[in-house]
């Protein structure tokens, strides 16, 4: 990380921490402190109020100063400034002409104005107003984060969750310093009352923090592999661990120190409480900086997760007709062993009998538990970055004969000329078994090879001879051809495959990809004659006709979208198991979620050239939507 | 009637999922396309990003085979589409050109960069 970036992360962290503190002071002064202060004697009350006022002003001063440093660091970063002069020249344009500048500027003005809004703090309404302004400054911040860059309903959910998350963090962590100050000035009994009043607010905030973190984690991280396999996920885990530490301190404050205030050791308990709050504040600061680090990283959802374990859970085995019953039995026995051990904890008289029984049942379970784990590789959870692009399938088709056919055979059946000389026969790439392996697993084998049981090489790795893009292209090609071969053999589709992606130029001048066409049913026609892509008689507003073209393209009689890249022609030939030279006239239907659903070739019994038949086919696809949308979401290169 | 019906859950899980566009402006498409060979020399380079970009802090540089800049300077976003960044070009002779882009995402100010080549061959 360069100096400017590190400065950016640090300035953002300090700015947000100070903003949280401003909200916390105002919230504490509005919601927690008043009854306790009212009961305190005059000089103590005035001392505490002066302290709270100073804390609020100090928070604002730090927030505004750090905000200006943040602006400068962001300007240097955006302008890729090499010198201070370059960075300084970018300051004003960043503030006035960028989304980031507008948001930060508005936030700093709000924070600065909240000081006169509070006044001397004696008026309850003005304290609430100041808290509201500090809260608004935090909510505004979410509009310049990952949340704002999301789309659709996810954007709304993320903005809401992050706003609540920041407000809860402010009300809880930001209240710790004023609590610390107030506890210092109050008598032990009053401290206990303050701590008890603080507790419900703290618990509500923790519940909100955990709930909103779960929502954000679900959307931005999205699963166990991303949680343990990316920097973003691991920092989120660190935040979770620190939250548990914070909770331990909060529990100690409420259940250990607060009750002890009333006893003879009240003064010692008060010192303990202050120490505990101080450490809690420090841990809270670390959490805020961890959050600032997260803001710099691409969300885990868009990274390739590197799986850190040699095994992965294999829940699918429970539904396997052969091994399912054994795996289920093993799991039930393990559950029984755990239950017995748990009972043993509480049932003192039978403890040893129960423990021995638990060990015995566990020993009975263990031989079957390995079924529940499957071998895993670092790339097991990688997703293909190609989006099943036609260009990738066509590229794979170019690479396959040279790099794969010698062993796997030109048809992919595992019967190439070199197959006999190998320690174990090469995989039949046309078998249905291919679909039991993830893209990430295939990528590992293709990159690093496969060892035979005796230690010799069953398959070489291609990491050194083929680029990453080429390896992903081969995986797309092998999948497409597997689906095509199954279709050519049975005359029917066997595997659900995404429609190969291509860009298409439409009559209105727009260039569209599959992602843009989400929600539409596509009728794709391999067109080599002017009359080939005539639209069905009745117009269907959600159906778009796209003509695949070869080089040179033909001029069509009807105005439809055109896929001029010959790779699209090749890819649709591969995925339907037809020779590219024989594809002309073939039609495909793609459902609204991007899956290839049906194919028709001239001469098939049911005639799509009859528009009634075609419309019935379309109606059937519309009536049976696929369960999920094809993920063509982008990944960030490391 | 040829139905390509649900075959394998694993494949569906591998290829389906939530695909929110988040956080980083990456290249979605370009005109001329990355790696393309075009017959007529383009007069502008247009890049569509996965997100809206800040025009003042995003750039497109185009270099010829000798490393000389052949773009006309400041890149602009389209008035109705902040995802589309384009830059004018000086007249291009046949040859291979390198496009170097830098983008700043409007929503969260993250920076991304990349490059690709295209060829003019009449």
List the helices and strands and how they pair.
The complex is a heterodimer of chains A (638) and B (122).
Chain A: H1 3-32, H2 34-39, H3 42-78, H4 84-97, H5 99-118, H6 124-141, H7 152-173, H8 176-185, H9 188-220, H10 224-229, H11 231-260, H12 266-296, E1 311-313, H13 324-346, H14 351-369, E2 373-375, H15 390-403, H16 405-408, H17 439-448, E3 450-451, E4 457-459, H18 468-490, E5 497-498, E6 504-505, E7 511-512, E8 521-526, E9 543-548, E10 561-563, H19 566-575, E11 587-590, E12 595-600, H20 611-623
Parallel strand pairs in A: 8-9, 9-10
Antiparallel strand pairs in A: 1-2, 3-4, 5-12, 6-7, 8-11, 11-12
Chain B: E1 2-3, H1 9-15, E2 27-31, E3 37-38, E4 44-49, E5 59-63, E6 76-78, E7 81-88, E8 95-104, E9 111-120
Parallel strand pairs in B: 3-9
Antiparallel strand pairs in B: 2-4, 4-7, 5-8, 6-7, 8-9
Q: Can you offer a commentary on this structure?
A:
The complex is a heterodimer of chains A (638) and B (122). By secondary structure, chain A is α+β, with helices and mostly antiparallel strands. Chain A is 58% helix and 7% strand. In chain A, the strands form 4 sheets. Chain A has a 6-stranded mixed beta sheet. In chain A, a hairpin with a 5-residue loop joins β6 and β7. The two termini of chain A are 14 Å apart. Chain B has 122 residues and is mainly beta. In chain B, β6 (76-78) and β7 form a beta hairpin. Chain B starts with a strand and ends with a strand. The relative contact order of chain B is 0.26. The model of chain B is unreliable at 1-22 (pLDDT under 50). The interface between A and B is large, with 76 and 43 residues.
């Amino acid at each position: 990380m360069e100096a400017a970036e590190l400065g950016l992360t640090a300035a953002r962290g300090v700015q947000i921490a100070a903003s949280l503190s401003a909200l916390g002071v105002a919230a504490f002064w509005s919601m927690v402190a008043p009854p306790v202060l009212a009961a305190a004697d005059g000089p103590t009350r005035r001392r505490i109020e002066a302290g709270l006022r100073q804390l609020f002003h100090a928070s604002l001063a730090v927030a505004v100063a750090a905000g200006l440093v943040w602006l400068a660091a962001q300007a240097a970063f955006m302008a890729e400034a090499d010198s201070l002069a370059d960075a300084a020249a970018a300051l004003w344009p960043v503030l006035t002409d960028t989304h980031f500048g507008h948001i930060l500027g508005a936030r700093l003005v709000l924070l600065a104005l909240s000081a006169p809004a509070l006044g001397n703090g004696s008026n309850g309404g003005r304290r609430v107003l100041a808290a509201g302004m500090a809260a608004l400054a935090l909510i505004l911040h979410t509009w310049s984060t990952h949340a704002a860059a999301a789309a659709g309903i996810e954007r709304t959910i993320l903005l809401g969750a992050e706003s609540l998350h920041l407000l809860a963090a402010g009300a809880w962590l930001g209240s710790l310093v004023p609590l610390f100050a107030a506890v210092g000035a109050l008598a032990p009994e009053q401290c206990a009352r303050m701590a008890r009043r603080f507790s419900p607010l703290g618990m509500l905030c923790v519940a909100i923090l955990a709930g909103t973190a779960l929502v954000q984690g679900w959307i931005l991280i999205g699963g166990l592999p991303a949680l343990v396999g990316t920097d973003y996920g691991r920092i989120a885990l660190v935040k979770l661990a620190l939250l548990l530490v914070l909770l331990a301190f909060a529990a100690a404050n409420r259940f250990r120190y607060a009750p002890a205030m009333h006893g003879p050791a009240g003064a010692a308990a008060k010192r303990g409480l202050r120490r505990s709050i101080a450490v809690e504040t420090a841990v809270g600061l670390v959490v805020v900086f961890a959050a600032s680090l997260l803001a710099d990283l691409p969300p885990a959802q868009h990274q390739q997760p590197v799986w850190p374990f040699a095994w992965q859970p294999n829940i699918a085995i429970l539904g396997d007709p052969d091994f399912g019953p054994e795996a289920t039995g093993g799991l039930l026995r393990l559950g029984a062993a755990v239950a017995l051990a748990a009972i043993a904890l509480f049932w003192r008289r039978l403890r040893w009998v129960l423990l021995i029984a638990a060990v015995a049942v566990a020993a009975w379970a263990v031989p079957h538990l390995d079924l529940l784990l499957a071998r895993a590789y670092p790339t097991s959870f990688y997703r293909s970055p190609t989006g099943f692009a036609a260009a990738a399938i066509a590229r794979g088709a170019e690479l396959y004969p040279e790099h794969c056919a010698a062993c796997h055979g030109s048809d992919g059946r595992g019967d190439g000329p070199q197959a006999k000389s190998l320690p174990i026969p090469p995989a039949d790439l046309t078998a249905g078994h291919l679909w039991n392996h993830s893209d990430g697993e295939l990528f590992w084998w293709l990159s690093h090879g496969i060892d035979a049981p005796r230690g010799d090489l069953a398959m070489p790795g291609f990491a050194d001879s083929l680029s990453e893009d080429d390896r992903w292209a081969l995986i797309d090609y092998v999948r497409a051809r597997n689906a095509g071969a199954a279709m050519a053999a049975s005359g029917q589709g066997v595997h659900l495959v995404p429609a190969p992606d291509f860009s298409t130029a439409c009559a209105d001048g727009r260039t569209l990809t599959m992602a843009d066409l989400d929600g539409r049913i596509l009728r794709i026609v391999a067109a080599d004659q002017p009359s080939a892509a005539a639209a069905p008689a009745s117009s269907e507003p959600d159906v778009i006709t796209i003509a695949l073209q070869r080089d040179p393209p033909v001029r069509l009689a009807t105005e439809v979208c055109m896929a001029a890249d010959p790779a699209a022609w090749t890819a649709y030939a591969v995925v339907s198991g037809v020779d590219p030279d024989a594809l002309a006239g073939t039609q495909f239907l793609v459902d609204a979620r991007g899956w290839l659903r049906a194919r028709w070739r001239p001469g098939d019994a049911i005639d799509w050239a009859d528009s009634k038949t075609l419309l019935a086919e379309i109606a059937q696809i519309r009536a049976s939507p696929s369960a999920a949308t094809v993920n063509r979401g982008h990944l960030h290169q490391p | 009637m040829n139905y390509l019906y649900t075959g394998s859950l694993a494949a569906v899980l591998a290829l389906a999922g939530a695909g929110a566009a988040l956080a980083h402006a990456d290249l979605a498409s370009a005109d001329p396309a990355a790696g393309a060979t075009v017959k007529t020399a383009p007069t502008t380079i247009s890049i569509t990003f996965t997100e809206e970009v800040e025009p003042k802090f995003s750039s497109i540089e185009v270099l010829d085979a000798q490393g000389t800049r052949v773009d006309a300077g400041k890149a602009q976003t389209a008035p109705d589409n902040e995802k589309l960044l384009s830059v004018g070009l000086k007249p291009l002779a046949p040859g291979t050109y390198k496009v170097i882009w830098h983008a700043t995402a409007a929503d969260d100010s993250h920076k991304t960069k990349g490059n690709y080549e295209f060829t003019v061959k009449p």
